[in-house]
Amino acid sequence: MASWLSLVWANLARRKLRLFFTLASIAVAFLMFGLLEALRGSLAGSVSLAGADRLITMSKISIIQPLPRSYLEKARGVAGVEAVASFNWFGGVVKDGRTQIPVYATEPAKFLAMYPEVKISAAETTAWLNDRQGAIVGPLLANEYGWQVGDKVPLRSTIYRQENGADTWEFNIHAIYDVIGGAGWDKGSVVFDYDYFNESLQFGRNSIGWLVVKVADPREAEQVSHRVDALFANSSAETKTATERAFIKQATEQVGNIGALLISVVSAVFFTMLLVTANTIAQSVHERTNEFGVMKTLGFTDRSLLALVVSESLLLTLVGGAIGMALAYVAAQALATTVKQFLPVFGIGLRTVVVAPLLMVAMGLIAGAWPAAIAMRLRITDALRRGA
Amino acid sequence: MNLRNIPARWTSALVAVIGIAGVSLVLVAVLSIAEGFRAALEFSGSEDVAIVLRRGSTDELTSGLGQTSIPVITDAPGIRRTAAGAALVSPELFVIVDTKLRNKDTTANTPLRGVSPMAPRLRKNFELLQGRLAHEGTNEVIIGNGVAQQYEGLAVGRIVRWGSNDWHIVGRFSDRGGIAESEVWADAALVQQVFNRGASYQSARVRLTSVAAFQAFKDALDRDPRVNLRVERETVFYAEQQQLMQKLVSGLGWTLATMMGLGAILAALNTMYNAVASRVREIATLRAMGFGAAPVIASVLIESLVLGAVGGLLGGVLAYLLLNGMRSSTLNFQTFSQMTYAFTVTPRLLLTGIVYGLVLTFLAGLLPGIRAARTPITTGLREL
């Protein structure tokens, strides 16, 4: 076996430069495959990580249509509901900038109960609950804008106006939160007190954007969501309730068919790579026509020559693929911190680890098939006559 | 001479061409999406139409106009009037309604625009394709062509429920691919009532007497102390709107093209080294005859560049044949609603594909060319 492998390798290494380029292009193909898979998995992953016990209740018309504030208490009374929190999208813009950041108005105590994965210290919690102008911010925003606990931060709203006509609210930062043990909340938003917001508004008081409903038993999520919607049916503001998971899935699908885009790109990459590999093997077989004739004369069977060429092709894709996947792993690790804000889970998943070797084998077999068939069908007399 | 050599190594050359074509295909395809956005938004704007928003708003969604600002806008100078004397002004409001997408089990944000009967006269490419216009003050709506293709159950003659109201679809219109095609148009007053908007609007579109009348119109409103408005040419407004999407999509296109390009360079390098290796003797003979290093490098480069140009063009043409004109939709972040667009492969994009192919093959041809030129003549002649 070892000698067989060394024969295969020796054949490949005959032209070092060609071997290098072929390996490198296979590696690049698998690098892209790995990264695009990580992207796809991460988009799907944020869906599966979303809390199964949380529902989102929004206006049946659309997410931007407000609901009456009274819905918070009404929904709390529905059988099977454990907790409810309301959210308003503030449309926050960092002062003097045009960058919009996620800013939510909610009731602090209800928010912390709804998202136990959001961690702030007990002292910070007390301080926040006791200051109407208080806010907590995510570590990503704190880093980006240099915010610290104790800072007073002005944020402009693109949607709301204060009673005095001003469009900027000031917030006291009481904590920089962390998210541990769950991915229901992101690390890049600002959360502040609904009362402070509501009472300073010029228009649209006592309305909320959407509700997050925690169900006592996740298996009952479906029934609870029907109950909530039934409660508000035939009112002036009907609702639509779905699990957080379904909600996120719908939001990503609105952007377009990302999956189809990624699959087309990966197919184009692999198709090209297949040709490169097949070409390399074919060239190598062509150069060795004479040699194959000699081998056949010595008693090598057609089958063993077929196996030899296919093994060369397989070895090529396996080695190249392994290098590519290793690179993809390193690159994914490096990228993970950069894209954390948008894609909390970014990495090479188990599925990719299983699929990649299968792809390598498939590519190797396909790329080697045609040149191997040529080598097998060679007639000794022709082979020896040619190239001599 | 080099070019006539290509057929002798056709498989290898073909692989290089296909490799480049693949890269060019992906690049042109993704960029054609960005181009589609640009076309849809830029096509929508007219030079002689002004859009009025609340000061500080970057888009219609976050804008708000009180009822009192409408007469002020209508009285401003420079507005074109109909023969009957009515000002060509359309105060509009914009809400989002959830509608089920065709062939999918999810819903998407559909823009529902409350308009005045003047609205069609403020879109230069408006054309009624089917049915009739909606009557003022009724629950009749007309739908854009893109909307009709994208959603389930939206067709002339159908009734659809949004909010607490049933809306009758009476007409379908085109805007020659413009953004209005992604919208549903209803009576402004009824939209205000059904969606609890009081008497407020979000924007007003105004047709001016001429392109030059804009400045006077803008100045008059800027100076008016009764209102606090932002006045913009429609073309400028839309150009601003598409910037973000354009940047995002082109960024994606170039990232993919760069990574794939790396792979394609390797394939082309392989081809070119091969081309050089199989002709070592021939090149050495040429050098012995007195050809310098430069012509040798040039000849290798030319061969490589031809492969690049052919591959680049092939990819672009494939993108054109497969995708051009195909319609799709995505979430427009500025309006938070679906916008339909068509993949648009322009001659400029085809050129981009070819140039990128040339850049890749230039890099791939340079090293083998230099190697060919530097192989000592004696060694080259001794080779088999």
Descriptive report:
The complex is a heterodimer of chains A (388) and B (384). Chain A folds into two domains: 2-47 and 257-385, no CATH class; 61-237, no CATH class. Chain A has 14 helices and 15 strands. Chain A has helices spanning 2-12, 16-49, 71-76, 108-114, 122-129, 139-145, 194-200, 221-232, 244-255, 258-287, 289-297, 302-339, 350-377, 380-385; strands at residues 54-59, 67-68, 81-89, 92-94, 100-101, 103-106, 118-119, 134-137, 152-157, 168-176, 178-179, 190-193, 207-208, 210-215, 239-243. In chain A, strands 5-4-9-10-8-12-6-3-14-1-15 form an eleven-stranded mixed beta sheet. A two-stranded antiparallel ribbon of chain A has the order 2-13. In chain A, strands 7-11 form a two-stranded antiparallel sheet. The model of chain A has no long low-confidence stretch (mean pLDDT 86). With 384 residues, chain B is of the alpha+beta class. In chain B, strands 1, 2, 3, 4, 5, 6, 7, 8, 9 and 10 form a ten-stranded mixed beta sheet that branches. In chain B, strand 6 (159-162) and strand 7 (165-174) form a beta hairpin. In chain B, helix 9 packs antiparallel against helix 10. Chain B is elongated. The mean pLDDT of chain B is 87. The chains are: A alpha+beta (388), B alpha+beta (384). At the A-B interface, helix 2, helix 9 and helix 10 of A face helix 2, strand 2, strand 3, helix 7 and strand 11 of B.
Task: Annotate the secondary structure layout.
The complex is a heterodimer of chains A (388) and B (384).
Chain A (H helix, E strand, L loop, with lengths): L1 H11 L3 H34 L4 E6 L7 E2 L2 H6 L4 E9 L2 E3 L5 E2 L1 E4 L1 H7 L3 E2 L2 H8 L4 E4 L1 H7 L6 E6 L10 E9 L1 E2 L10 E4 H7 L6 E2 L1 E6 L5 H12 L6 E5 H12 L2 H30 L1 H9 L4 H38 L10 H28 L2 H6 L3
Helix pairs in contact in A: 1-12, 2-9, 2-10, 2-12, 10-12, 10-13, 12-13
Chain B lengths: L1 H4 L4 H35 L4 E6 L14 H7 L13 E12 L6 E9 L11 E5 L8 E5 H6 L8 E4 L2 E10 L9 E4 H7 L8 E5 L6 H10 L5 E5 H44 L2 H9 L4 H31 L3 E6 L4 E6 L4 H28 L2 H6 L2
Parallel strand pairs in B: 3-8, 5-7
Antiparallel strand pairs in B: 1-9, 1-10, 2-3, 2-9, 4-7, 5-8, 6-7, 11-12
